[in-house]
């Protein structure tokens, strides 16, 4: 093939490809419980951010409803709930310049014997390579709640957090809420003092108030459960900036 035909072929390919609409990211998670039985109970959840202009806030035609629960047997479920609809594959509209998406994921477990499931609950990221599709200035943080109280943050950019687990005892129904946040670093820093979008000494005061403390505190910008130099470094990057879109 001549170089002119090659250039023409590549041009047509690029033009054709530009018309393809795809999600900017599709993070695939698996929730299961190991209670010592031969087969663990498994369910999946997809968090999708898309620049497709047809994707809507809340329930969208692209979303996939959670299938009906089985009539018998032990099982688990993982879903978010926009407008009262149980969704296990959730598309959210994404502006790559201002990523700020929150997926509250409810985790359920049911025991056919009505005594509850006891063992270890797992929530795993199945395709960590998809993090490369998330806007590079976005933090990707899981927060695990117990009874509505944040227990731990997990920075998904850290490979050590691609599989998280915790013990459960006698669970029959909702046992954990997992909040997935895809949020721009600048907006995360600005949220330290939400009344003012400018990054200044007020935000610095909030950060230092929890300095070297452990847990999901306000000053823990990057979600690694400690307020330290890593969080300060992020703040310095955006100091005196206005984080309004």
- Secondary-structure element series: HEEEEEEEEEEEHHH
> How many β-strands, per DSSP?
11
pLDDT under 50 segments (min length 5)?
3-22
First-to-last CA distance = 48 Å
Q: Tally the helices: what do you get?
A: 4
Which strand order spans the largest sheet, edge to edge or round the barrel? 3-5-2-1-7-10
Task: Report mean pLDDT, rounded to a whole number.
Answer: 85
By helix and strand content, what is the structural category?
A: alpha+beta
Binned, the helix content reads: 10-25%
Radius of gyration: 21 Å
Oligomer class: single chain
Specify the overall morphology. globular
Tell me about the largest β-sheet.
6 strands, mixed
Question: What do these coordinates show?
Answer:
The protein is of the alpha+beta class and 245 residues long. It has a domain at 21-185. 16% of the residues lie in helices and 38% in strands. It has helices at residues 3-18, 185-190, 201-209, 229-237; strands spanning 23-34, 41-50, 64-65, 75-79, 87-93, 100-110, 117-125, 138-146, 149-155, 163-171, 173-184. The strands form two sheets. It has a six-stranded mixed β-sheet, with no helix packed on it. The longest helix is centred in the N-terminal third of the chain and has 16 residues, at 3-18. The relative contact order is 0.14. Mean pLDDT is 85; it is low at 3-22.
